[in-house]
Amino acid sequence: MRLRVVTKNITQTLALSKIIAREADAFRRTNRNHALVIGLTGGLGSGKTAFVQGFAKALGIREKVRSPSFLIIKRYIIPKQRGALFHIDCFRLKGHRELTALGFDEILQDPTHIVMIEWAERVRTFLPRQTLWVTFRNAPHRNWRCIMFHTAA
Ligand SMILES: Nc1ncnc2c1ncn2[C@@H]1O[C@H](COP(=O)(O)OP(=O)(O)O)[C@@H](O)[C@H]1O
Ligand SMILES: [Mg+2]
Questions:
Q1: Each residue of 62-95: pLDDT tens digit?
Q2: pLDDT, greater one: 1 or 6
Q3: Does 31 have pLDDT greater than 70?
Q4: Are strands 2-7 and 84-89 parallel, antiparallel or unpaired?
Q5: Dihedral over Cα of 51, 54, 56, 59: its sign
Q6: What is the largest CA-CA distance in the chain?
Q7: Distance between CA 123 and CA 98 in Å, rounded?
Q8: Which residues, chain by chain, have CB under 5 Å from ion ligand 2?
Q9: Long-range contacts made by residues 56-61, C-beta under 8 angstroms, separation at least 24?
Q10: Are 68 and 48 contacting, i.e. CB atoms less than 8 angstroms apart?
């Protein structure tokens, strides 16, 4: 699957991430044996964290989602449901072992989890084949972003 969307401001990116969140949430309930993983790639300021913010809001998470750069992994309970949303930032990651030490492998194994990873290309080889990849690029105008979705399956 490949899909390219251009958003013209942050409001459109938030709206898009909400639609994806609803689909992802429904998909999560289907038969799976590991977490639903969304790999976010693209430069600084390209909109990765904004996308997670809209996504979390659509799941009913009230807590303000911030860039987890220093924490690396942040966990949000999804209200009224089993499971949690994990927001991971690999920007400052020194190696996969750092994630393993924080319980990354167990997080990926739980089918009730949704795991969103910024700078996910840095841990690509550790992610499930069914990962949904979302790539952010700047577009000709200042507030435009080109957002590409692709999956291997
Ligand atoms: N179309 C757009 N989509 C997302 N963010 C946008 C857009 N236009 C402008 N912005 C701004 O770009 C910045 C994106 O920041 P952020 O989501 O933290 O990026 P990243 O996590 O990729 O470093 C925010 O300041 C946001 O307001
Ligand atoms: Mg970010």
A1: 999 998 767 789 999 999 888 999 999 999 898 8
A2: 6
A3: no
A4: unpaired
A5: negative
A6: 42
A7: 11
A8: 48-49, 67, 118
A9: 56/21, 56/85, 56/87, 57/14, 57/18, 58/17, 58/18, 58/21, 58/22, 58/25, 59/21, 59/25, 59/85, 59/114, 61/85
A10: no
Q: How many CB atoms lie within 10 A of CB 61?
A: 20
Distance 24 CA to ligand 1 centre (A): 22
Which residue type sits at 52?
Answer: V
**Spatial separation of the C-alpha atoms in residues 124 and 33, rounded to whole Å:** 19
Tens of pLDDT, residues 6-28: 999 999 999 999 999 999 988 88
Asked if 116 contacts 84 with a C-beta cutoff of 8 angstroms, the reply is no
Which residue range forms the structural domain that includes residue 84?
2-151
5 near 147, Cβ under 8 Å?
yes
Number of domains in the chain: 1
Q: Which CATH number is 102's domain given?
A: 3.40.50.300
For residue 88, the cross-strand partners are 73, 117
Ligand 1 pocket member 87 (CB < 6 A): no
